[in-house]
Amino acid sequence: MAGGKLVDAESGILAKALPYLREAAQDVRRPDALRGREFTVVDSSGYVATDREFAFSGISRKQLEDMKELRAPLGTWPEQWRAAVTELRQALKDEGITDADMRLKGTSAKFYSGDPAKRFPQTEDELRSMAAEAHRLISGSHRLPRIEDVVAAYRQAGFATDGPKPAVAFFDSRYKLGLSKWPSDYDFQLCSDTLAERFEAYWRANRTLGLYTKGDWYNPYLLDRVAPGLDRWVGRWEKTWGRWVSIATYGRPYLGRTTRPGDWVVIQ
After folding, report:
1. Sequence-ordered list of residues with C-beta below 8 angstroms from that of 107, at least 6 positions apart, any chain
2. What is the mean pLDDT of each run of 10 residues along the chain (268 residues)?
3. Looking at the whole model, is its pTM more than 0.70?
């Protein structure tokens, strides 16, 4: 992936985005920019997101509305999202994958993480512990300044108070705090018997890499071997968005176990 900044893959994309980005910047600068909205974003503990969280993520009222209305996930805008989905459909078609059910998961689709293990730090002590773990590979003399930078970002954003806080991480929060090297990714769930059979067949013939990773989804490092066109789509949009694009592939039976009301269905 091309670092943590958005890199445009085509000429003209940035020009089209500028009005949208200007509006987002104005919304974030205005303290009352997100008040009066007709919807709320709530985490698993019942905490309702406030201007503090939205401003820290750099998310505008327009971007939140687009997310809630499924026009575009956080981190992109509707025109660019439509282009990405159009290219995704073509990539699947070119690969002969006609039974795909693809859904967008994660913070770009919901703002808050759905994983309770991805905690948001409630105190500075907890934050320091998380920062020490995140930067454990850095030598001691350089680690302490990194930890202090993390604490400073937490304080500056207004999270060092005793008031209520989100229970879980939210869009770009770990990146903005300095707990993660990368911004939030685009997390897709793809259910397809056609693609599942290709993973299985490739692994039986080669067995050079594990078939599964991170549980029961097929190893994404095999994607370029079984669906190179889809893998190229991933690479192109990682470069464009400046974010990792993760595709967790399963067979169709998995779909019945994970479908939820309000899922962001990208392709069905």
Report:
1. 74, 113, 169, 170, 171, 172, 184
2. 43 48 48 51 96 96 95 98 99 98 97 96 98 91 93 98 96 98 97 97 91 87 97 98 97 82 92
3. yes
